[in-house]
Specification:
This protein is an alpha/beta fold and about 200 residues long. The protein has 2 domains: about 50 residues, Orthogonal Bundle (Helicase, Ruva Protein, domain 3), CATH 1.10.8.420; about 90 residues, Dna Topoisomerase Vi A Subunit, Chain: A, domain 2 (3-Layer(aba) Sandwich), CATH 3.40.1360. Helix content is about 40%, strand content about 15%. Helix 1 packs across helix 2. The longest helix is centred in the first third of the chain and has 17 residues. The N and C termini lie far apart (about 60 Å).
Amino acid sequence: MNQELENVTEQFRKLPGIGVKSARRLAYFMLERPESEVKAFLDTIKAAREKICYCSVCCNLATSDPCDICGDARRDHSVICVVEQPQDVMAMEQSHEYHGLYHVLHGALSPLDGISPDQLKIKELLNRLESDEVKEVILATDPDAEGEATAFYLSRLIKPAGIKVTRIGRGIPAGGDIGYADGMTLAGAVQNRKEL
């Protein structure tokens, strides 16, 4: 096997969710493209990397500081939705249902993986809560063991400050099939039921 091809493959393997076969397919694809396309691809990534920073308020990826969301006076500044990753902000924004602010932790607590509270943006969140403006914190961490542990940990830190702490609802997705749902999803659906 060509060592240069393997080097490119290894770089693609560093991307989340990309296994050996997918990485090799991407490597072949990029190496077979015209040089102008490859250059445009690399230039786009490099330009984005140079322009993107972290918002000093919410820790989200942004092109300005503060970011457009934190700087928007029309948003509800009394509510902060805490998410694990920057892509979670985009998902929440696409729902068009949430109009408050965000805080990105950049991960979730995972002692087995060596991720402790000091490695997340928890201190930054607590600093934001020192103002009297924040009335509610919505914990929108993933519904897995790490996300649940993170939500529990944060709620124990925040509640003594007298700030309302809520957790996003969980349940079966629209168009989902109860027969294929896992136990944790079904438990969340039952716990978060509402009267009709």
